[in-house]
């Protein structure tokens, strides 16, 4: 039950939070890292094993890096909104959130209703978790912790989705690799330089600003590096031309050698075999020289056009 002289503020919670946000911190107070003020999770069921949920949850949250400092204060006992005393206390300890809840017996069985007040934005979030009568307070606290982690990611992190055509492009945020497209993940809010890299396509980069609690999707069509592709193509055709020319030179030497052996042959030499070998070397030489000329022509056309 709220005290009577707090009732006007209770009826205007947003105004109350705005006034508190404008108040300067107490003189000489050190502003430490943000904290979570964990109030009482009141048990309204007949199952006494749920009485210690707030204590078990406080121990779990304290050990997690995803949460700020967690301070357990069971005097924060409210039904729908913190009173002025709780708000002043939360501000004095630099609390980012106030959390409290109720264990009740719903139509579908016992459950726990968690309420989270964001001190910075002045918004209230509600979580409803179904529980089993046979579960201990520690098991229920573990479920609440998991839900809170998911809630924290959705409200304080940013969901980033990046797709490219073609796919399998590397995604980097301020030079830090995140993965390959199609990419979907959670990142910290802020302003970054988004980069996409995939050979032989032109690298893409753009500045992006990400605000917590939102989803950002980017779709890109990668452009090929035509100049780079042309250079590679010219080098390839030059290599083919040189290879064919060198092989043709070897075939010409084989042809000359086979022709001399045919001319100098005397009976009982196999004249047909020597002649056929010389003809095969001559045909191979001519084909390779023609291929070298064709490759060289293609290379010249690519350079010119």
Provide a descriptive summary of the structure in words:
This protein has 305 residues and is an alpha/beta fold. The protein has three domains: 4-155, Rossmann fold (3-Layer(aba) Sandwich), CATH 3.40.50; 158-221, Carboxypeptidase-like, regulatory domain (Immunoglobulin-like, Sandwich), CATH 2.60.40.1120; 227-304. The protein has seven helices and twelve strands. The chain has helices spanning 7-11, 13-22, 53-62, 84-92, 137-156, 226-264, 271-304; strands at 35-43, 69-72, 95-106, 109-118, 123-130, 158-165, 170-173, 176-180, 183-187, 190-197, 204-210, 215-221. It has a five-stranded mixed beta sheet, with helices on both faces. Strands 8-7-10-11 form a four-stranded antiparallel beta sheet, with no helix packed on it. A three-stranded mixed beta sheet has the order 9-6-12. α2 (13-22) packs parallel to α4 (84-92), α3 crosses α5 (137-156) and α6 packs antiparallel against α7. The longest helix has 39 residues, at 226-264. The N and C termini lie far apart (86 Å).
């Amino acid at each position: 039950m709220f005290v009577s002289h707090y009732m006007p503020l209770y009826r205007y919670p947003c105004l109350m939070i705005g006034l508190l946000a404008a108040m300067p911190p107490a003189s000489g107070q050190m502003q430490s890292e943000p904290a979570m003020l964990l109030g009482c999770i009141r048990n309204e069921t007949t199952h006494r094993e749920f009485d210690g949920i707030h204590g078990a949850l406080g121990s779990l949250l304290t050990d997690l890096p995803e949460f700020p400092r967690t301070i357990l204060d069971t005097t924060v006992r409210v039904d729908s909104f913190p009173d002025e005393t709780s708000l002043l206390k939360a501000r004095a300890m630099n609390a980012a959130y106030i959390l409290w809840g109720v264990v009740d017996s719903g139509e579908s069985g016992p459950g726990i209703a968690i309420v989270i007040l964001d001190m910075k934005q002045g918004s209230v979030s509600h979580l409803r978790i179904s529980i089993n009568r046979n579960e201990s307070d520690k098991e229920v606290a573990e479920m609440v912790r998991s839900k809170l982690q998911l809630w924290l990611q959705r409200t304080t992190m940013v969901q980033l989705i990046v797709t490219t055509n073609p796919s399998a492009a590397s995604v980097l945020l301020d030079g830090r690799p995140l993965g390959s497209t199609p990419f979907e993940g959670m990142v910290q809010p802020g302003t970054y330089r988004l980069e996409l890299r995939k050979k032989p396509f032109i690298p893409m980069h753009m500045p992006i600003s990400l605000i917590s609690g939102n989803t950002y999707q980017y779709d890109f069509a990668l452009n090929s590096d035509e100049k780079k592709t042309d250079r590679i193509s010219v080098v390839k055709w030059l290599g083919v031309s040189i290879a064919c020319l060198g092989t043709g030179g070897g075939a010409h030497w084989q042809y000359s050698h086979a022709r001399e052996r045919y001319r100098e042959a005397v009976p009982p030499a196999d004249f047909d075999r020597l002649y056929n070998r010389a003809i095969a070397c001559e045909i191979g030489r001519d084909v390779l020289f023609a291929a070298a000329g064709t490759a060289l022509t293609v290379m010249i056309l690519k350079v010119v056009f």
